[in-house]
Amino acid sequence: MKFFAAYPSSPDHISISIEEAEKANSSHLQFSTWRSTFGAGRLIDQSVLPEIAKADGLICDISIPNENVFFEIGFAIGKMKPIIPIINISMMDAGEYLRKVGLLDNVGQIRYENSADLVYQLQSHAVGRPIFAEPNFEISNQPLLVLDSLRRNEFSTKLISAVKELAKFYRTVDPQEEYRLSTRSAWELVNESSAVVVSVYDTTRTDYLLHNIRAAFLAGLTIGLDKECVILVDPNANKPLDFIDVCRTIKHPDDIRDAVSDLVPKLYQQQLGGTEKRRTKNRRLISQVSVGSNAAENEMRDLEDYFVETHHFKNALEGRGRLVVGRKGAGKTAIFWRVRDISRRKNSELVLDLKPDGYQLRKFKEQLVTLLADGTKEHTLTAFWEYIVYCEIVHKILESDYKRLYGRNPRLTPILDDLSELRSVLFEAREGDFSERMMGLIKDINDKFYMRHGTDGSTALQTSEVTELLYATDIHKIQNAVLSYLETRDRTLLLVDNIDKGWGAHGVDRDDVLIVSTLIDALRKVERKAAKSRANLGWLLFLRNDVFELLVDQQNDRGKDGKIVVDWDSEAALQQVIEERIRSSTLARTGKAAGWADISIPTIDGMGSIAWLTKRSLMRPRYLIQLVDECIGHADVCGHERIEVEDLRAGFRNFSQDVIGNTSFEMRDIYPSSEDAIYALIGLGRKTTLGTVKGTLTKEGYGDHLDKIVDLFFWFAVLGASSPNGEEKYIYDYRYDQKLISKMRARADGDDEEIFINHAFAEGLDCVDLI
């Protein structure tokens, strides 16, 4: 067999080891390097991919993060080539970054010290099959895939805004939601897409190195699968040689719209032509099963087919509360999309879905909130939000109703005329989606303030000044025009999500909470004024429950707005999520609905196989979907007819490693001193004591932060406690009530307290389970 080798040109001891191994290698597994293959006068960037395409597979050195190497790996996987990752362990921290990025960290690797060691290990290496089975995916109803950034900057904000406007339906790889990108997730997302857009950042951007690794891998995979790929590059970024000719340099964020615009026609051509030929490649039932995406944003057009209507969804749909509260991954966003889509079916209802992003809200805080005088902040921010809400209602009315009703309804036509005049004043030259319109308004206020007062920070804005800078026209005129129109609708519904996206539970300051509380006050105010005008207006605000608790603690009128808690205390309800997704996908692809019993062995370790997985899912839909998907994928690539015991165990281990990595990064964002503390639990007994955990943390250098880190372990359900009757209990068993689990633990005997490491983490941490 003849493989091709992908490796970085520096440091020298990696490239020299591989090139010397090429010369000395006499095993069954031969390989060539780019240095020996491409002589003088050949364009390396145009020659590498053809060499990989004709090779039997790819040997790839992933000791250090390198964009060219990951681009070539993605391309090889797309071309269904076996890959052999290798790591030079003579390097300090070789391969450690894989734990953070997720890609290839659970793919078997050869770990070598020098050229002779590499040759020796290749001689006994059995070449496996490609790591994934032949693609058998239908193109998603959201056919464009976009790589988002960890910190939403001007570049990524413009990109997402352009995609929303031009492509409409898209999915994202969002490091804020899941920092680690698993190889399987990347494979599935790209296969279900018609086109992919990635960005390459320069060294000044947060997380640029791992972001660019994700971008390179996704781009290589996309091109390997013969799909459209757009690579947008910061002007000062290093353009990797392998794909330098397909990069599009973005000199100004406004240029992004043109790049997306050029892609859209190709996007839908591929979608129209790409579905049917994918359906018939593999007839095994396991290959026809899909459980969808574990992120609701990436499946909003398909949710209707398999959404499980829980009591908390029905409460939200029927307006039995105002605040929808739940943990990350509990299904809040799925409820957001379903409530929106069902409500929009009625032409007599006006529905607004507002999703500000983290970058926008940080700018809001930096550029406006910090300028306000302390005594006027609450009143002024409420006025700001009220103005934003009315502006967005004006925008929505004219966007959804103007063409449909203008000139056809004598009563509404003059009101629409008034609203049309208002829009030209309210939005001036501001375009784009809600995020861009809000950012434009903040920038206008900021610019006017600095023009008037300078930039020395000695002047604080008073309420009267903000309203003068804010209101382009009389607020009462806006209110009257909007409410006159809303009186004619059966109902107006405002849905607000993402307000706390990217916030750490213990990193939220007073101004963050004030931003949320004043938004709530503004929504209440608009609702009251609508009621006085006999207009039916309701609203739902979606919040993480930790942020909600902070909000309640700092408000005097706690409980004023009804709370709808999204939690999953029923294993049967969670399992129904999986059953519905299996039923929907098999019915669509085979014409016959199947269930879990048709695709999996019935039991493992003396319990039902789906119950076994549910107990390891942290009782969240997102995690159970991811876990089941890992098991299905392993069974498929191994050629099994159904999920076997080995598939359950292998899928669970891959899932556990992902959950550990993502939880570690969430903990770091909340409390930086806790970074990697979760790995201190490696090798402990799954049933242990608080003193043992504290001792291990102290030994690993976390002694000054013990109480905080232990609290976070319980909050993230890494650790559980023993209930009064001796049962193993986690925070989700108490509806995420931290006070309740703390009270229960308070009866325990200090460091002798008996605690448990959750199955979801224990597997990947190699904890010894003697329970």
TrEMBL record:
Highest taxon in the source lineage: Bacteria
Family matches, as InterPro entries: P-loop_NTPase, Sll1717-like
Protein name: Uncharacterized protein
Organism: Thalassorhabdomicrobium marinisediminis
